[in-house]
Predict the structure.
Amino acid sequence: MLEVRNLHVEVEGQKILRGLDLKVHPGEVAAIMGPNGSGKSTLSYVIAGREDYEVTDGEVLLDGENVLEMDPEERAAKGLFLAFQYPVEIPGVATMTFLKASVNAQRKSRGEPELSTPDFMRHVKQGAERLEVNPDMLKRPLNVGFSGGEKKRMEILQMALLEPRYGLLDETDSGLDIDALRIVSNGVNALRAANRGFLVITHYQRLLDYIKPDVVHIMSKGRIIKSGDAALALELEKNGYRDYVADAAA
Amino acid sequence: MPPMIRREHDAERMLGEQFRAFRPADASAGRRDEAFTLFSEAGLPSRRIESWHYTDLRGLVREALPPAPEPDAATIEAARERLAAHAVPGAARVVVLDGTYRPELSDLSALSAGVTVTSVLDALSTGDLDAGLAAAQKLGQVESMLALNAAFLQGGAMIVVAPDTQAAAPIELVMLLSGRAPAATYDRSYVKVGDRASLTLVERHASLGDAKSLAATVLVAAVGDGASFEHLARIDGLGPQALHLGTTLIRLGADAKFEATTLVATGGVTRRQAYLEFVGENATAHLYGVSLLDGKSHADTTLIVTHTAAHCESRELFKHILDGEATGIYQGRVVVAPGAQKTDGKMLSKCVFLGDGANMYNKPELEIFADDVVCGHGATVGALDDDQLFYLRARGIPLREAQALLLEAFASEAIETVSVASVKDEMNDRVGEWLRQHGR
């Protein structure tokens, strides 16, 4: 289980998360919705291990083990994967080189043998086909000159190759047209498994039409203020965040 | 400018004595005397000369090393062994050992038809220098070290590519120092690329030993109309007591193309300077380079690019990776003469520090005297991009490995235009090897 307990986080003295509690069970897709500035992206970065955030209290437990003391690479090898809202462009590093480096670094860290090049290539090719990723993209520098949709598909391809225990999807739907949204969602759905959980961060209910959540959390001002089933997202879509934001402020 | 009152430096006095002993009594004597007089008037470049501010030879050169003697049989044998370990496939090879051209170590069998290579001393003694080369050579007339090089000239190669000749075989120009005893070497090579001809020159500087050395090496190139010239240089593995002064003087005709990539990965003090002039329209010049510096090494890249003709394009891209207490210097000056309209010039110098003891001086300059041009420059100094590092680490790539990937990518951008696959691979491999040696 991925569990966040009483998480308090500050950035440059500003409180962003204020005692956030959250559980994602294996096999579960949990959605987090909330207005701008509620701390959704901060939560995903803190779980993945970005350094610019100061955790002043709380824990993030992966199967009972606090990951907050770990380097980002260690968390990745333990099975945490963050699909970035804005995937980073890395000029000079071929996408294929990067994919192989990351898959093998994680295998090595877990004491597993590195994949042979043919095995790796087969793996990538299958994933790329499913996500309609053009093989030429794999030869290009990572994310450089990729369209918004291509970048997001590349994120999901990475997730497919790395087979994490928990996938954090940070506004994966932003900047996607309907076709790309369908492809990306299919890619995520194909990875749903009894031993794998997802935390899907989004502004819009639309994504949840494609990736059906088991549970929906509403986040405001750095806390989860309401949880429910998929119906909660539909209700939000109709009424907006207004009621919840007012509640939290009270 | 009125002559500066200057106290003679010990090294300068020693050079005078050495010159009188060295000066051969042949037809070159008059030319050498003239050059030595020029040198004596100016002396060693010091920090009072702006372009030598960061590489002050009056401070660095305490004693003048004697000109290297003709290599003996054992030195030639040692050079032969070193050369056998390394070759550019399909290339002709020209070897200069301790400043002198060595036909017995060179291999010209692969030379393309229409290309000739001769000893520079022979070429200079038998006729006047080609007008294009003489004009290119003049670009460096303000440099006293070039006058010193001319006074003590020991050897080098005269490479001529006939018009309309596409030289398929690259020429490898290997400058080896024996490094057995402290010595100075003074070599100069010329490359004449005829109209519409093309040539790739792979220049390599290395040393067989670690003795104190001064290498004043000069390459003069005249690239004809519609011709193209690729110059790939590598200064690698010189010891901490080496002082390497490399100058390229190059003149480009109309529609000419010049591509240069220089890799500096060496100890001691290195200064690579290039004077380039566009004399015909629609020519392009791309000057790229990577410096990998550690310890107390010092590398200075100084470029003076002059757009005399209109409609030309110049690009400079230099990457520096500094560790230890190394010093990196980049001085790039792009001059756009009146009338050189539609000049397109871009210059970028980027530095990454691995530790916090190193220093980088970035000095890009534009001097523009024409009003319809697009010119820009930039310089950055700092660490690797945090967003990129986090992205790689979030995918499980450990910090050191992530840094290495980014540093290799950082350097490779300045290597990617190299057309000779084996040279390009070697340069990239060298970057990787250097990074591993430095814990990345």
Remarks:
- The interface with chain B takes residues 48-52, 71-73, 75-77, 81-82, 84, 87-88, 90-93, 97-98, 101-103, 105-106, 109, 141, 158, 162 of chain A (CB under 8 Å).
- Chain A has a mean pLDDT of 92.
- The longest strand of chain A covers residues 14-24.
